[in-house]
Description:
Elements: E1 19-22, E2 29-32, E3 39-43, H1 50-66, E4 72-76, H2 82-89, E5 95-99, H3 116-122, E6 124-129, H4 132-137, H5 142-154, E7 158-163, H6 167-171, H7 175-186, E8 197-200, H8 214-232, E9 241-244, H9 252-256, E10 263-266, H10 273-287
Parallel strand pairs: 3-4, 3-10, 4-5, 5-6, 6-7, 7-8, 8-9, 9-10
Antiparallel strand pairs: 1-2
Helix pairs in contact: 1-2, 5-7, 7-8
Amino acid sequence: xxxxxxxxxxxxxxxxxxxxxxxxxxxxxxxxxxxxxxxxxxxxxxxxxxxxxxxxxxxxxxxxxxxxxxxxxxxxxxxxxxxxxxxxxxxxxxxxxxxxxxxxxxxxxxxxxxxxxxxxxxxxxxxxxxxxxxxxxxxxxxxxxxxxxxxxxxxxxxxxxxxxxxxxxxxxxxxxxxxxxxxxxxxxxxxxxxxxxxxxxxxxxxxxxxxxxxxxxxxxxxxxxxxxxxxxxxxxxxxxxxxxxxxxxxxxxxxxxxxxxxxxxxxxxxxxxxxxxxxxxxxxxxxxxxxxxxx
Length: 295
């Protein structure tokens, strides 16, 4: 069956009005030439059936057609369901597909792996790389994550590079240094400000119902932004920084209202169509005005 491509209908990241924030450890406000376009991405992990996936996509497609949000939306079903979800969403949808992982090779004898080329052909715009469940359960290093992100870029996909510390690393006062090292080693050299997303997910918060304090999230996201600016200069202003880890309807507003939090990577709550749509609407209300411009 011919794959349905939905990428052509997805909005590009627009330029937004400038604002200012303080780079950590400096007392000089940095002029933000652009603001990141917010993104809410749902990661279904190893969940979903053909029936539930079809119902979810039809529900979301109807809502997205009646209300244009000022944030991007992406969904990451298991690979066998990607084409079904693409067809159910329809060719004119503004909801993007996202792969859950990709191989560092483009083809060959790699049983069980999925290539970036395959994801691109089925219509994906994004792909997750470096999720903690891959780093921990599959022993993936930042070097491997970098190779996967590079392959994603080679096929026109936007890698969502996931980073995060364990509870032991946070307790030892190493959370920021661990995450900065993961980003530095996972980010391909050829990355530009328009083709990458960073998702901070503290390992100890994923699926546990525990969430860092707002001050802890701000500290981490400010540090990530500062690192990206040092590496890419002011262009890094437009790189979306997502928070992930037990995000749901009850805490989405508090989390996404924080500075340098440009959306969310949503796990279990993304399987519930009404709750996930509500999180997307919350992001839109917080991050854009009535004209779709970033606040």
